[in-house]
UniProtKB/TrEMBL annotation:
Protein name: Aspartate--tRNA(Asp/Asn) ligase
Protein residues bound to ATP: 221-223, 488, 540-543
Species for this entry: Salipiger pallidus
Enzyme Commission number(s) of this protein: 6.1.1.23
Lineage summary: Bacteria, Pseudomonadati, Pseudomonadota, Alphaproteobacteria, Rhodobacterales
PROSITE patterns found in the cross-reference section: AA_TRNA_LIGASE_II
Length: 593
C-alpha cells in the first residue's frame, strides 16, 4: 500500500464498498454525533466523509484531531444509508470507517477558518495566504487560472505559433509605467530593469526571421494599485507576427479569446468574433466615456450642446461660450422618476462634480410632460428636441454633464455604468467584446505644453512620415485594445519598423537621435537590416481569469498577490537590505525625511 494514499478524497464510490483504503488530507470539519465522530477529510480533489466510533482502535487518537490537521487514515469503505446520501458530493454515497490514523502535521489555532464562507479582512487573508488558498473558492479560482493558461497555450500551438522565452533582466524602456530597477554588482552605478513587457524582444524575434511568436510572459511594472490591476507583476499571453496588418492580428487573437470564454464562461453568451465592433477611440470616449466600454449596457451618450447654446439654463449656456466645451446627455430608459434622478445627482456629487442636470418625461393624463429643473429653464421646444434626438419617451430620463470632456468624461462613463446596472439594462449573462481602434499616439501636458507618447511608443503612425510632419495631436496609430464588460483585456499595435520613422516619432516626444540610438540600440540597429512589417498584442491573463471567475478583485485570481500598498505581508517584502548587500552593490540608502 502507498505510504499516504490509495485514492484521493474525490474518487471513492459505491463500487469501492468493502475495500480497505488509505486517504490523506486535511480535517475540514468535525462533528460529534453522540459518541460517533464524523470528519470531512479534504484534499485538493474533493471531500470524503470518514467516521469513527468507540469500537475502532483509532478512536482515542481521532478524538484528539482538530480543524486543518493533516492526517492519514486507513479504513473500510461503507455505503451510506439512503436517507444520508449527499448528492452534492461525488463521494456522497459512501463513508470510510477509520481503523488507523496517523497525524502528518498538526495545526496551531487558525487565524482564519478554511471551512465555511466567512469574510476576513484582506490583510489577514494575504498574511496567511497558504490558509486562504485552502478555501474552496480559492482552490476553484486557481484551478481555473491554470486551465485557462493551458487552453491558451494549446490554442496558440494549434495556430502554428511557437513559444519562445525572453529575458527577465534587461534595459530600462519608456513603455508607459515605472520600471523596477535592479542594481548591477559587476557594473557599479548601473542598473538593469525588469521588463514591463517583452515588447522589444518580441520585435527582435521578428527581425530574426521567426514568423510567429507567443509566450505566457511575466511583466513587471511599478504601478499604483487598483482592484483590477496588480501593483508589481502580472502575466500576459504575448504574441507577435510578421507580414501582417491590423485585421490579421484581430483575426488571429479573437477566436483564441472567444474560445477561452466559451470554454470557461459557464454558459454565458459570447458573441461571434466576426461581429465584435471596431470602435474608434474618439467615438468610444463620446458614447461611453471610456476606451474600455461595457457593451452589455445598451446606453450610448450623445452630444446635445446645440440644444443648450443660448438657452435659459445659464450654467450650460455660459460653459458653451468657452472653447473646447460641450454638453453630453446620458439617456436613462425607464429611469423617469424624481427619486432615481435625485439618486444619480447625488452620485455625481460623490464623484466630485457639483451635480448632474436631468430631465424626465411623464404622463400626467394630458399627454407627455417634461419635468425637472432643466426642462423649466430651457423650455418645451428645446426639451422636445432633446427627447427626439435621444429617442426617449414616457417613463424615461436623461442626465447631462458639461464642460471640457476631460473634466467630466470619467464620471459620465461611471454614471452610464451605474444607470445601466440600476435600471436592469445591463445583460449579466454575456461577455461583450469590442475592438477600440485609432488611438492617438501623442498627448499634450496641459500644464507644461510638452508632447509625449499617450500609448505604446513603438506603434506605426497611420499615414507614415507625412502624418508625423503635421499636428502631433492629430496623429493616430495602428494601435488597438480589446475591451470586455468594462475591462481592457488585450492591447497591441502594428509596429513602426522603419528607422527614419522611429527617429521622427521619438523626436516629437522630445527624444534626440543619440538618446534613441542609445536607449533602443538593439531594436534600432536591427531595423537597419531588413526589418519585416510586423505587429501583435498581449492579453492580460489575470484580468481574463478575473472576469471568468466572476470577481472584480484581481487578487482573487493571483496565487500570491501583493496588497494595495505593494507589500507581500506573508513574505515581509519589500525588506531592508543588509549593509553588506548594499556595499557589494555600491549603493547607499538615503533615509526619508
Amino acid at each position: 500500500m502507498h505510504a499516504y494514499r490509495t485514492h484521493t478524497c474525490a474518487e471513492l464510490t459505491k463500487q469501492n464498498v468493502g475495500d480497505t483504503v488509505r486517504l490523506s488530507g486535511w480535517v475540514h470539519r468535525i462533528r460529534d454525533h453522540g459518541g460517533i465522530l464524523f470528519i470531512d477529510l479534504r484534499d485538493h480533489y474533493g471531500v470524503t466523509q470518514v467516521l469513527c466510533d468507540p469500537d475502532s482502535p483509532a478512536f482515542a487518537e481521532v478524538e484528539k484531531v482538530r480543524s486543518e490537521w493533516c492526517i492519514r487514515i486507513d479504513g473500510t469503505v461503507k455505503a451510506r444509508d439512503e436517507s444520508l446520501v449527499n448528492p452534492k458530493l461525488p463521494t456522497g454515497e459512501i463513508e470510510v470507517f477509520v481503523r488507523e490514523i496517523e497525524v502528518l502535521g498538526q495545526s496551531a489555532e487558525l487565524p482564519l477558518m478554511v471551512f465555511g464562507d466567512q469574510e476576513y479582512p484582506e490583510e489577514t487573508r494575504l498574511r496567511y495566504r497558504y490558509l486562504d488558498l485552502r478555501r474552496e473558492a480559492m482552490q476553484k479560482n486557481m484551478t481555473l487560472r491554470s486551465d485557462v493558461v493551458s487552453s491558451m497555450r494549446k490554442r496558440m500551438w494549434d495556430l502554428n505559433f511557437r513559444e519562445y522565452q525572453t529575458p527577465i533582466i534587461t534595459a530600462s524602456s519608456p513603455e508607459g509605467a515605472r520600471d523596477f530597477l535592479v542594481p548591477s554588482r559587476l557594473h557599479p552605478g548601473k542598473f538593469y530593469a525588469l521588463p514591463q513587457a517583452p515588447q522589444q524582444f518580441k520585435q527582435l524575434i521578428m527581425m530574426s526571421g521567426y514568423d510567429k511568436y507567443f509566450q505566457i510572459a511575466p511583466c513587471f511594472r511599478d504601478e499604483d494599485p487598483r482592484a483590477d490591476r496588480s501593483p508589481t507583476d502580472f502575466y500576459q499571453l504575448d504574441l507577435e507576427m510578421s507580414f501582417v496588418e491590423q485585421q490579421d492580428v484581430f483575426d488571429t487573437i479573437s477566436p483564441v479569446i472567444a474560445g477561452v470564454f466559451e470554454e470557461f464562461g459557464e454558459g454565458a453568451k459570447v458573441d461571434d468574433p466576426a461581429s465584435w465592433p471596431q470602435i474608434p477611440y474618439k467615438e468610444a470616449a463620446l458614447k461611453y466615456g471610456t476606451d474600455k466600454p461595457d457593451l452589455r449596457n445598451p446606453i450610448e451618450m450623445q452630444d446635445v450642446s446645440e440644444h443648450f447654446r443660448g438657452s435659459g439654463f445659464a450654467i450650460f449656456a455660459k460653459l458653451l461660450e468657452q472653447e473646447g466645451t460641450e454638453i453630453r446627455a446620458i439617456p436613462a430608459p425607464t429611469g423617469g422618476s424624481r427619486k432615481f434622478c435625485d439618486r444619480m445627482n447625488a452620485f455625481a456629487q460623490k464623484e466630485g462634480l457639483p451635480g448632474m442636470g436631468y430631465i424626465f418625461w411623464r404622463d400626467q393624463g394630458e399627454g407627455l410632460e417634461a419635468a425637472g429643473p432643466l426642462a423649466k429653464n430651457i423650455g418645451p421646444e428645446r426639451t422636445e428636441a432633446i427627447r427626439e434626438q435621444l429617442g426617449l419617451g414616457v417613463g424615461d430620463a436623461a442626465f447631462f454633464l458639461g464642460g471640457k470632456p476631460a473634466s467630466f468624461q470619467r464620471v459620465a462613463g461611471k454614471a452610464r455604468d451605474v444607470i445601466g446596472e440600476e435600471l436592469g439594462l445591463t445583460d449579466k449573462n454575456r461577455f461583450a467584446f469590442a475592438w477600440i481602434v485609432d488611438f492617438p499616439i501623442y498627448e499634450k501636458d496641459e500644464e507644461t505644453g510638452k508632447i509625449d507618447f499617450e500609448h505604446n511608443p513603438f506603434s506605426m503612425p497611420q499615414g507614415g512620415m507625412a502624418a508625423l510632419e503635421g499636428d502631433p495631436l492629430a496623429v493616430k496609430g495602428f494601435q488597438y485594445d480589446l475591451a470586455c464588460n468594462g475591462y481592457e483585456l488585450v492591447s497591441g499595435a502594428i509596429r513602426n519598423h522603419k528607422p527614419e520613422l522611429m527617429l521622427k516619432a521619438f523626436e516629437i516626444a522630445g527624444y534626440g537621435e543619440d538618446e534613441v540610438k542609445k536607449r533602443f540600440q538593439g531594436l534600432y540597429n536591427a531595423f537597419q537590416y531588413g526589418a519585416p512589417p510586423h505587429g501583435g498584442c498581449a492579453a492580460g491573463i489575470d484580468r481574463i481569469v478575473m472576469l471568468l471567475a466572476g470577481t472584480s478583485n484581481i487578487r482573487e485570481v493571483i496565487m500570491f498577490p501583493m496588497n494595495q500598498r505593494a507589500e507581500d505581508l506573508m513574505m515581509a517584502a519589500p525588506s531592508d537590505a543588509t549593509s553588506d548587500q548594499l556595499m557589494e552593490l555600491s549603493l547607499r540608502v538615503i533615509p526619508q525625511e
